[in-house]
Write a structure and sequence with these properties.
transmembrane helix, single chain, membrane, transmembrane, mainly alpha, Poly_Biosynth_Transport, about 0% strand, about 425 residues, cell membrane
Protein backbone atom coordinates (compact mmCIF):
# COMPACT_ATOMS: atom_id res chain seq x y z
CA UNK A 1 0.00 0.00 0.00
CA UNK A 2 2.87 2.32 0.86
CA UNK A 3 4.55 1.65 -2.51
CA UNK A 4 1.29 2.44 -4.31
CA UNK A 5 1.00 5.73 -2.44
CA UNK A 6 4.60 6.63 -3.29
CA UNK A 7 4.03 5.80 -6.94
CA UNK A 8 0.85 7.86 -7.05
CA UNK A 9 2.58 10.76 -5.34
CA UNK A 10 5.48 10.62 -7.81
CA UNK A 11 3.13 10.59 -10.80
CA UNK A 12 1.03 13.41 -9.34
CA UNK A 13 4.14 15.52 -8.74
CA UNK A 14 5.39 14.84 -12.27
CA UNK A 15 2.08 15.82 -13.86
CA UNK A 16 1.74 18.93 -11.70
CA UNK A 17 5.26 20.06 -12.60
CA UNK A 18 4.64 19.41 -16.28
CA UNK A 19 1.34 21.26 -16.57
CA UNK A 20 2.55 24.17 -14.45
CA UNK A 21 5.91 24.41 -16.20
CA UNK A 22 4.70 23.77 -19.72
CA UNK A 23 1.64 25.92 -19.18
CA UNK A 24 3.77 28.91 -18.16
CA UNK A 25 6.34 28.35 -20.91
CA UNK A 26 3.74 27.77 -23.60
CA UNK A 27 1.66 30.68 -22.37
CA UNK A 28 4.60 33.07 -22.66
CA UNK A 29 5.54 31.73 -26.11
CA UNK A 30 1.96 32.01 -27.37
CA UNK A 31 1.75 35.54 -25.98
CA UNK A 32 5.01 36.45 -27.75
CA UNK A 33 3.78 34.92 -31.00
CA UNK A 34 0.46 36.75 -30.88
CA UNK A 35 2.25 39.98 -30.00
CA UNK A 36 4.24 39.68 -33.22
CA UNK A 37 1.12 38.82 -35.25
CA UNK A 38 -0.79 41.84 -33.95
CA UNK A 39 2.00 44.43 -34.04
CA UNK A 40 4.05 43.59 -37.15
CA UNK A 41 3.05 44.44 -40.70
CA UNK A 42 1.98 41.55 -42.90
CA UNK A 43 5.19 41.95 -44.92
CA UNK A 44 7.39 41.81 -41.82
CA UNK A 45 5.46 38.88 -40.38
CA UNK A 46 5.71 37.08 -43.72
CA UNK A 47 9.51 37.30 -43.43
CA UNK A 48 9.46 36.06 -39.83
CA UNK A 49 6.93 33.31 -40.64
CA UNK A 50 8.89 32.03 -43.62
CA UNK A 51 12.09 31.92 -41.57
CA UNK A 52 10.35 30.12 -38.70
CA UNK A 53 8.77 27.57 -41.05
CA UNK A 54 12.04 26.95 -42.87
CA UNK A 55 13.83 26.54 -39.54
CA UNK A 56 11.38 23.84 -38.44
CA UNK A 57 11.80 21.92 -41.67
CA UNK A 58 15.59 22.15 -41.77
CA UNK A 59 15.77 21.26 -38.07
CA UNK A 60 13.89 18.02 -38.68
CA UNK A 61 16.01 17.22 -41.73
CA UNK A 62 19.22 17.68 -39.76
CA UNK A 63 17.97 15.69 -36.79
CA UNK A 64 16.72 12.67 -38.80
CA UNK A 65 15.31 11.19 -35.59
CA UNK A 66 18.69 10.89 -33.83
CA UNK A 67 17.64 12.75 -30.68
CA UNK A 68 14.35 10.86 -30.50
CA UNK A 69 16.23 7.54 -30.19
CA UNK A 70 17.67 8.30 -26.76
CA UNK A 71 14.60 7.51 -24.64
CA UNK A 72 13.41 4.39 -26.58
CA UNK A 73 16.91 2.84 -26.72
CA UNK A 74 17.62 3.52 -23.06
CA UNK A 75 14.20 2.14 -22.09
CA UNK A 76 14.29 0.53 -18.65
CA UNK A 77 18.07 1.07 -18.35
CA UNK A 78 17.74 4.72 -17.32
CA UNK A 79 19.56 3.98 -14.05
CA UNK A 80 22.79 3.55 -16.01
CA UNK A 81 23.96 7.16 -16.30
CA UNK A 82 27.07 6.16 -18.23
CA UNK A 83 24.91 4.52 -20.89
CA UNK A 84 22.54 7.51 -21.04
CA UNK A 85 25.55 9.78 -21.57
CA UNK A 86 26.72 7.60 -24.45
CA UNK A 87 23.37 7.82 -26.22
CA UNK A 88 23.19 11.59 -25.75
CA UNK A 89 26.72 11.98 -27.14
CA UNK A 90 25.86 9.74 -30.11
CA UNK A 91 22.78 11.84 -30.90
CA UNK A 92 24.88 15.03 -30.66
CA UNK A 93 27.64 13.62 -32.86
CA UNK A 94 25.27 12.40 -35.60
CA UNK A 95 23.13 15.54 -35.58
CA UNK A 96 26.10 17.89 -35.70
CA UNK A 97 27.48 15.99 -38.66
CA UNK A 98 24.24 16.35 -40.64
CA UNK A 99 24.13 20.05 -39.76
CA UNK A 100 27.46 20.76 -41.41
CA UNK A 101 26.59 18.62 -44.44
CA UNK A 102 23.13 20.12 -45.07
CA UNK A 103 23.71 23.77 -44.12
CA UNK A 104 25.03 24.85 -47.56
CA UNK A 105 22.05 23.19 -49.28
CA UNK A 106 19.63 24.85 -46.85
CA UNK A 107 21.15 28.27 -47.53
CA UNK A 108 20.74 27.92 -51.29
CA UNK A 109 17.14 26.72 -50.96
CA UNK A 110 16.11 29.50 -48.56
CA UNK A 111 17.65 32.25 -50.66
CA UNK A 112 15.89 30.83 -53.73
CA UNK A 113 12.49 31.05 -52.00
CA UNK A 114 13.14 34.56 -50.66
CA UNK A 115 14.35 35.97 -53.98
CA UNK A 116 10.86 35.81 -55.47
CA UNK A 117 9.61 38.35 -52.92
CA UNK A 118 12.41 40.85 -53.61
CA UNK A 119 13.17 41.54 -49.99
CA UNK A 120 16.31 43.61 -49.21
CA UNK A 121 19.42 41.43 -49.41
CA UNK A 122 20.52 42.49 -45.92
CA UNK A 123 17.23 41.19 -44.52
CA UNK A 124 17.62 37.92 -46.42
CA UNK A 125 21.15 37.36 -45.09
CA UNK A 126 20.11 38.09 -41.52
CA UNK A 127 17.04 35.84 -41.81
CA UNK A 128 19.26 33.05 -43.11
CA UNK A 129 21.68 33.56 -40.22
CA UNK A 130 18.83 33.32 -37.74
CA UNK A 131 17.66 30.07 -39.31
CA UNK A 132 21.09 28.40 -39.10
CA UNK A 133 21.67 29.53 -35.52
CA UNK A 134 18.18 28.37 -34.48
CA UNK A 135 18.64 24.97 -36.10
CA UNK A 136 22.04 24.32 -34.54
CA UNK A 137 20.97 25.47 -31.09
CA UNK A 138 17.65 23.65 -31.37
CA UNK A 139 19.60 20.42 -31.64
CA UNK A 140 21.28 21.12 -28.31
CA UNK A 141 17.89 21.77 -26.73
CA UNK A 142 16.62 18.41 -28.03
CA UNK A 143 19.40 16.02 -27.09
CA UNK A 144 20.26 17.67 -23.77
CA UNK A 145 16.59 17.57 -22.76
CA UNK A 146 16.32 13.77 -23.04
CA UNK A 147 18.12 12.95 -19.75
CA UNK A 148 15.95 15.45 -17.91
CA UNK A 149 12.83 13.71 -19.24
CA UNK A 150 14.22 10.28 -18.33
CA UNK A 151 14.87 11.33 -14.73
CA UNK A 152 11.77 13.48 -14.35
CA UNK A 153 13.84 16.64 -13.85
CA UNK A 154 11.14 18.82 -15.34
CA UNK A 155 11.81 21.80 -13.10
CA UNK A 156 15.36 21.99 -14.47
CA UNK A 157 13.89 21.87 -17.96
CA UNK A 158 11.15 24.48 -17.58
CA UNK A 159 12.40 27.18 -15.21
CA UNK A 160 15.33 28.49 -17.30
CA UNK A 161 13.37 28.31 -20.56
CA UNK A 162 10.41 30.16 -19.08
CA UNK A 163 12.65 32.94 -17.80
CA UNK A 164 14.39 33.26 -21.16
CA UNK A 165 11.00 33.30 -22.94
CA UNK A 166 9.88 36.19 -20.74
CA UNK A 167 13.12 37.94 -21.64
CA UNK A 168 12.44 37.41 -25.35
CA UNK A 169 8.95 38.92 -25.00
CA UNK A 170 10.49 41.89 -23.22
CA UNK A 171 12.99 42.30 -26.07
CA UNK A 172 10.14 42.30 -28.60
CA UNK A 173 8.38 45.04 -26.62
CA UNK A 174 11.53 47.15 -26.34
CA UNK A 175 12.26 46.78 -30.06
CA UNK A 176 8.73 47.88 -30.92
CA UNK A 177 9.01 50.95 -28.67
CA UNK A 178 12.33 51.75 -30.36
CA UNK A 179 10.84 51.22 -33.84
CA UNK A 180 13.22 48.31 -34.51
CA UNK A 181 10.78 45.38 -34.56
CA UNK A 182 10.68 43.74 -37.99
CA UNK A 183 11.01 40.32 -39.57
CA UNK A 184 14.76 39.81 -39.19
CA UNK A 185 15.13 41.40 -35.74
CA UNK A 186 12.34 39.16 -34.39
CA UNK A 187 13.96 36.12 -36.02
CA UNK A 188 17.39 36.91 -34.58
CA UNK A 189 15.96 37.52 -31.10
CA UNK A 190 14.26 34.11 -31.32
CA UNK A 191 17.50 32.45 -32.46
CA UNK A 192 19.45 33.91 -29.53
CA UNK A 193 16.71 32.73 -27.18
CA UNK A 194 17.04 29.16 -28.47
CA UNK A 195 20.83 29.39 -28.19
CA UNK A 196 20.60 30.50 -24.56
CA UNK A 197 18.25 27.60 -23.80
CA UNK A 198 20.65 25.14 -25.41
CA UNK A 199 23.60 26.38 -23.33
CA UNK A 200 21.62 26.21 -20.09
CA UNK A 201 20.24 22.72 -20.76
CA UNK A 202 23.72 21.48 -21.67
CA UNK A 203 25.03 22.47 -18.24
CA UNK A 204 22.03 21.07 -16.40
CA UNK A 205 22.04 17.80 -18.36
CA UNK A 206 25.74 17.13 -17.70
CA UNK A 207 24.97 17.19 -13.98
CA UNK A 208 22.67 14.16 -14.35
CA UNK A 209 24.66 11.86 -16.65
CA UNK A 210 28.19 10.54 -16.96
CA UNK A 211 29.50 12.28 -20.08
CA UNK A 212 31.85 10.05 -22.14
CA UNK A 213 35.23 11.36 -23.19
CA UNK A 214 34.82 10.34 -26.83
CA UNK A 215 32.30 9.08 -29.38
CA UNK A 216 31.43 5.38 -29.28
CA UNK A 217 31.16 3.89 -32.82
CA UNK A 218 29.15 0.95 -31.44
CA UNK A 219 26.49 3.28 -30.03
CA UNK A 220 26.48 5.31 -33.26
CA UNK A 221 25.77 2.15 -35.26
CA UNK A 222 23.02 1.10 -32.86
CA UNK A 223 21.30 4.49 -33.21
CA UNK A 224 21.59 4.32 -37.00
CA UNK A 225 20.15 0.78 -37.13
CA UNK A 226 17.20 1.81 -35.02
CA UNK A 227 16.33 4.99 -36.88
CA UNK A 228 17.17 3.86 -40.44
CA UNK A 229 13.67 2.61 -41.42
CA UNK A 230 12.14 5.88 -40.22
CA UNK A 231 14.58 8.25 -41.96
CA UNK A 232 12.75 8.41 -45.34
CA UNK A 233 9.46 9.17 -43.57
CA UNK A 234 11.15 11.75 -41.31
CA UNK A 235 12.70 13.50 -44.30
CA UNK A 236 9.35 13.45 -46.04
CA UNK A 237 7.56 14.72 -42.91
CA UNK A 238 10.08 17.55 -42.56
CA UNK A 239 9.03 18.93 -45.92
CA UNK A 240 5.36 18.25 -45.21
CA UNK A 241 5.42 20.20 -41.94
CA UNK A 242 5.63 23.54 -43.71
CA UNK A 243 4.71 22.48 -47.25
CA UNK A 244 1.76 24.88 -47.44
CA UNK A 245 4.00 27.81 -46.41
CA UNK A 246 6.62 26.87 -49.01
CA UNK A 247 4.05 26.44 -51.78
CA UNK A 248 2.52 29.81 -50.95
CA UNK A 249 6.03 31.24 -50.78
CA UNK A 250 6.71 30.00 -54.31
CA UNK A 251 3.33 30.55 -56.00
CA UNK A 252 1.48 33.03 -53.77
CA UNK A 253 1.90 36.48 -52.24
CA UNK A 254 3.60 37.70 -49.06
CA UNK A 255 0.23 38.38 -47.42
CA UNK A 256 -0.69 34.69 -47.80
CA UNK A 257 2.55 33.65 -46.11
CA UNK A 258 1.65 35.91 -43.19
CA UNK A 259 -1.89 34.50 -43.01
CA UNK A 260 -0.74 30.86 -43.02
CA UNK A 261 1.90 31.61 -40.40
CA UNK A 262 -0.69 33.42 -38.26
CA UNK A 263 -3.06 30.45 -38.44
CA UNK A 264 -0.14 28.33 -37.30
CA UNK A 265 -0.04 30.40 -34.12
CA UNK A 266 -3.57 29.27 -33.33
CA UNK A 267 -2.50 25.64 -33.68
CA UNK A 268 -0.01 26.20 -30.86
CA UNK A 269 -2.86 25.36 -28.53
CA UNK A 270 -2.04 21.72 -29.35
CA UNK A 271 1.65 22.22 -28.56
CA UNK A 272 1.31 21.67 -24.83
CA UNK A 273 -0.43 18.36 -25.55
CA UNK A 274 2.23 17.36 -28.09
CA UNK A 275 5.07 18.16 -25.71
CA UNK A 276 3.29 16.20 -22.99
CA UNK A 277 3.67 13.17 -25.26
CA UNK A 278 7.44 13.59 -25.44
CA UNK A 279 8.06 14.63 -21.84
CA UNK A 280 5.70 12.27 -20.00
CA UNK A 281 4.11 9.69 -22.31
CA UNK A 282 7.19 8.48 -24.20
CA UNK A 283 9.40 7.67 -21.17
CA UNK A 284 6.47 5.94 -19.48
CA UNK A 285 5.58 3.90 -22.59
CA UNK A 286 9.22 2.88 -23.08
CA UNK A 287 9.34 1.39 -19.56
CA UNK A 288 5.81 -0.08 -19.56
CA UNK A 289 5.38 -3.88 -19.20
CA UNK A 290 3.99 -5.50 -22.37
CA UNK A 291 0.73 -6.61 -20.71
CA UNK A 292 -0.26 -2.99 -19.97
CA UNK A 293 0.55 -1.43 -23.34
CA UNK A 294 -2.81 -1.95 -25.08
CA UNK A 295 -4.89 -0.41 -22.29
CA UNK A 296 -2.52 2.56 -22.10
CA UNK A 297 -2.79 3.13 -25.86
CA UNK A 298 -6.59 3.11 -25.76
CA UNK A 299 -6.74 5.38 -22.71
CA UNK A 300 -4.38 8.00 -24.15
CA UNK A 301 -6.09 8.06 -27.55
CA UNK A 302 -9.51 8.55 -25.92
CA UNK A 303 -8.14 11.36 -23.74
CA UNK A 304 -6.68 13.02 -26.84
CA UNK A 305 -10.00 12.86 -28.65
CA UNK A 306 -11.83 14.32 -25.66
CA UNK A 307 -9.31 17.15 -25.41
CA UNK A 308 -9.36 18.07 -29.11
CA UNK A 309 -13.09 17.85 -29.85
CA UNK A 310 -14.25 20.95 -27.88
CA UNK A 311 -11.43 23.05 -29.38
CA UNK A 312 -12.39 22.16 -32.95
CA UNK A 313 -16.12 22.59 -32.33
CA UNK A 314 -15.54 26.05 -30.82
CA UNK A 315 -13.37 27.10 -33.79
CA UNK A 316 -16.14 26.18 -36.23
CA UNK A 317 -19.01 27.58 -34.14
CA UNK A 318 -17.41 30.83 -32.96
CA UNK A 319 -14.38 31.80 -35.09
CA UNK A 320 -14.71 35.48 -34.15
CA UNK A 321 -13.16 35.31 -30.66
CA UNK A 322 -10.39 33.08 -32.00
CA UNK A 323 -9.57 35.54 -34.81
CA UNK A 324 -9.58 38.41 -32.32
CA UNK A 325 -6.32 36.98 -30.98
CA UNK A 326 -4.68 37.58 -34.36
CA UNK A 327 -5.95 41.11 -34.88
CA UNK A 328 -8.06 42.88 -37.48
CA UNK A 329 -5.57 42.24 -40.31
CA UNK A 330 -6.65 38.58 -40.35
CA UNK A 331 -10.44 39.01 -40.18
CA UNK A 332 -10.76 37.50 -43.66
CA UNK A 333 -9.77 34.07 -42.34
CA UNK A 334 -13.10 33.50 -40.55
CA UNK A 335 -14.22 30.70 -42.87
CA UNK A 336 -11.00 28.64 -42.54
CA UNK A 337 -10.24 28.87 -38.80
CA UNK A 338 -12.23 25.73 -38.01
CA UNK A 339 -10.53 23.75 -40.76
CA UNK A 340 -7.11 24.92 -39.57
CA UNK A 341 -7.87 23.78 -36.01
CA UNK A 342 -9.20 20.45 -37.30
CA UNK A 343 -5.90 19.96 -39.12
CA UNK A 344 -4.02 20.76 -35.92
CA UNK A 345 -6.03 18.20 -33.94
CA UNK A 346 -5.46 15.47 -36.55
CA UNK A 347 -1.74 16.22 -36.53
CA UNK A 348 -1.69 16.05 -32.74
CA UNK A 349 -3.43 12.66 -32.66
CA UNK A 350 -1.06 11.39 -35.34
CA UNK A 351 2.00 12.52 -33.37
CA UNK A 352 0.66 10.92 -30.18
CA UNK A 353 0.35 7.53 -31.86
CA UNK A 354 3.75 7.92 -33.54
CA UNK A 355 5.46 8.72 -30.22
CA UNK A 356 3.87 5.71 -28.53
CA UNK A 357 4.90 3.53 -31.48
CA UNK A 358 8.53 4.62 -31.40
CA UNK A 359 8.61 4.26 -27.60
CA UNK A 360 7.74 0.59 -28.12
CA UNK A 361 10.37 0.41 -30.91
CA UNK A 362 7.69 -0.20 -33.55
CA UNK A 363 9.62 1.29 -36.46
CA UNK A 364 9.00 -0.59 -39.73
CA UNK A 365 9.90 -0.06 -43.37
CA UNK A 366 6.31 -0.81 -44.39
CA UNK A 367 5.08 2.15 -42.34
CA UNK A 368 7.56 4.48 -44.00
CA UNK A 369 6.56 3.37 -47.49
CA UNK A 370 2.83 3.63 -46.70
CA UNK A 371 3.12 7.14 -45.21
CA UNK A 372 5.00 8.55 -48.18
CA UNK A 373 2.72 6.85 -50.70
CA UNK A 374 -0.56 7.92 -49.10
CA UNK A 375 0.45 11.50 -48.38
CA UNK A 376 2.24 12.21 -51.64
CA UNK A 377 -0.54 10.71 -53.76
CA UNK A 378 -3.18 12.91 -52.14
CA UNK A 379 -1.03 16.02 -52.39
CA UNK A 380 -0.16 15.53 -56.05
CA UNK A 381 -3.82 14.97 -56.86
CA UNK A 382 -4.80 18.16 -54.99
CA UNK A 383 -2.14 20.27 -56.71
CA UNK A 384 -2.98 18.94 -60.18
CA UNK A 385 -6.74 19.42 -59.77
CA UNK A 386 -6.85 22.58 -57.66
CA UNK A 387 -3.41 24.10 -57.08
CA UNK A 388 -2.10 25.99 -54.02
CA UNK A 389 -2.11 29.74 -54.69
CA UNK A 390 -4.20 31.25 -51.89
CA UNK A 391 -4.50 30.94 -48.13
CA UNK A 392 -7.71 28.91 -48.49
CA UNK A 393 -5.98 26.50 -50.87
CA UNK A 394 -3.12 26.06 -48.41
CA UNK A 395 -5.44 25.34 -45.47
CA UNK A 396 -7.27 22.53 -47.28
CA UNK A 397 -4.00 21.21 -48.70
CA UNK A 398 -2.69 20.91 -45.12
CA UNK A 399 -5.92 19.20 -44.00
CA UNK A 400 -5.64 16.59 -46.73
CA UNK A 401 -1.95 16.09 -45.95
CA UNK A 402 -2.71 15.31 -42.29
CA UNK A 403 -4.60 12.09 -43.06
CA UNK A 404 -1.66 10.20 -44.60
CA UNK A 405 0.50 10.13 -41.44
CA UNK A 406 -2.52 9.45 -39.19
CA UNK A 407 -3.62 6.40 -41.17
CA UNK A 408 -0.02 5.18 -41.34
CA UNK A 409 0.61 5.42 -37.60
CA UNK A 410 -2.67 3.59 -36.92
CA UNK A 411 -1.48 0.84 -39.28
CA UNK A 412 1.91 0.62 -37.51
CA UNK A 413 0.12 0.47 -34.16
CA UNK A 414 -2.03 -2.43 -35.35
CA UNK A 415 1.02 -4.12 -36.89
CA UNK A 416 2.91 -3.79 -33.62
CA UNK A 417 0.08 -5.26 -31.58
CA UNK A 418 -0.22 -8.14 -34.05
CA UNK A 419 3.10 -9.44 -32.77
CA UNK A 420 5.54 -7.92 -35.25
CA UNK A 421 9.07 -8.01 -33.88
CA UNK A 422 10.13 -4.57 -32.58
CA UNK A 423 13.56 -3.20 -33.33
CA UNK A 424 15.69 -4.39 -30.41
CA UNK A 425 18.37 -2.29 -28.83
CA UNK A 426 21.74 -4.02 -28.74
CA UNK A 427 23.29 -4.13 -25.29
CA UNK A 428 26.02 -1.51 -25.16
CA UNK A 429 27.63 -2.34 -21.84
Amino acid sequence: MNSVWKSGHRISKLLTTFFLGQGLLQGVNILAGLYLVRTMSTEAYAQFGLAAGFQQTVGLLMDLGFTSTIIPLVGARSGDKVLVGKYVRAAKHLRDRTFWILSPIAMIAFFAIMRRHRWPWVSEVLLMGSVLLSVYSGGKVSYYSAPLFLYGRLKDFYVPQTLSAIGRLAVFWIMRIAGALNGWTAAIATAFNITLNGEILQRVSHAHVEWPEKDDPKIDREVMRYVLPAIPALVFAAFQLQSSVFLIGIFGQSVSIAQISALGRLSQIFSILTIFNTVVVEPAMARLPADKVLSRYITLILIALLACTPIVVLAFAAPGPVLWLLGSKYEGLRDVVGWAMLTGSINYLSILIWIMNRARKWVFWSGTILEITLTLSGQILFIVIHGVRTTHDAVFFSLLSAFGPLLTHIYVMAYGFSGAQPRQAVSSV
